[in-house]
Amino acid sequence: MNPMLNIAIRAARRAGNIIAKGYERPESIETANKRPNDYVTNIDKAAEEAVIEIIRKSYPDHTIIGEESGALEGENKNVQWIIDPLDGTTNFVKSFPHFAVSIAIRENGRTEVGVVYDPIRNELFTAVRGEGAKLNDTRLRVENRRDLDGAILATGFPFKAKQHMPAHLNIIGALIEDAADFRRSGSAALDLAYVAANRVDGYFEIGLKPWDSAAGDLLVREAGGIVTDFSGGHNYLKSGNIVAASPRVAKAILTKIQPHLTDTLKN
Ligand code: 2AM
Ligand code: CA
Ligand code: CA
Ligand code: CA
């Protein structure tokens, strides 16, 4: 097995155990407001520290970027670990059992490994570039749907609501003309993993951070799906505007999205 995948899995499981223990004891969760409607807990921080400790033991020189710690530059800037220790904190705080640990490893600007771990269901999604994607030991392959007809799509609401909600609602309105329904799960990492696993047929979201999407992006692509920005390009890790689906569904989503894009959403 890819040695870095091995460490990423160990780190994701360790963080997942911390999260699951916290979930069982809600009285142990201390919640703080980073910004209005933006929560962080002691568990987010403990999980991130555990992940960093495990990476540091094997790869002391690698660069680590975590949601809660920011960039920890190592001597080796060519290898970056991008961590979201708890994706879906709002769900976690509400005892809504849907959240995950997300860990991606990028080498020279290309994602090589992606791991998303759901500690409640004990589901481990993994991908290595060129070697496919798996849920636990089962290979994932996105279904080759012809179009949006009957599709179940996932999304999240934009956090810069004033700026982006009108466009988001227009896009939902356009998609639901053809698609069957929407899910709004509260974890972008799991939304992408679920595209890879055919639990939803497509996904779009505005304004994600790299730690939300870097691991899930590789899961989708290694399962044979397409991930793009809103212009069909590759800028989604930077812009945070992302579409993920099987090839023809991704194309159909982009066609529906494009008439509603404001200037800042065009890539
Ligand atoms: P988080 O739980 O790690 O913060 C849900 O649509 C996605 O948005 C989740 O991946 C969630 O990640 C992220 N998210 C939640 N609140 C946010 C906020 N205030 N700003 C930016 N992203 C947020
Ligand atoms: Ca957060
Ligand atoms: Ca997140
Ligand atoms: Ca987080």
From TrEMBL:
Named cofactor requirement(s): Mg(2+)
Positions that bind Mg(2+): E67, D84, L86, D87, D212
Pfam family, one: Inositol_P
SUPFAM superfamilies documented for this protein: Carbohydrate phosphatase
Annotated GO CC locations: cytoplasm
EC number: 3.1.3.25
Subcellular locations according to the entry: Cytoplasm
Top-level enzyme category: hydrolase
Catalytic reaction(s) noted: a myo-inositol phosphate + H2O = myo-inositol + phosphate
GO biological process, one term: inositol metabolic process
Domain of life according to the entry: Bacteria
InterPro entries the UniProt entry points to: IMPase, Inositol_monoP_metal-BS, Inositol_monophosphatase-like, Inositol_monophosphatase_CS, Inositol_monophosphatase_SuhB
Assigned keywords, A-Z: Chaperone, Cytoplasm, Hydrolase, Magnesium, Metal-binding, Ribosome biogenesis, RNA-binding, Transcription, Transcription antitermination, Transcription regulation
Chief subcellular location: cytoplasm
Matches recorded under PROSITE patterns: IMP_1, IMP_2
PANTHER family (alphabetical): INOSITOL MONOPHOSPHATASE, INOSITOL-1-MONOPHOSPHATASE-RELATED
Similarity field: Belongs to the inositol monophosphatase superfamily.
Record-given protein name: Inositol-1-monophosphatase
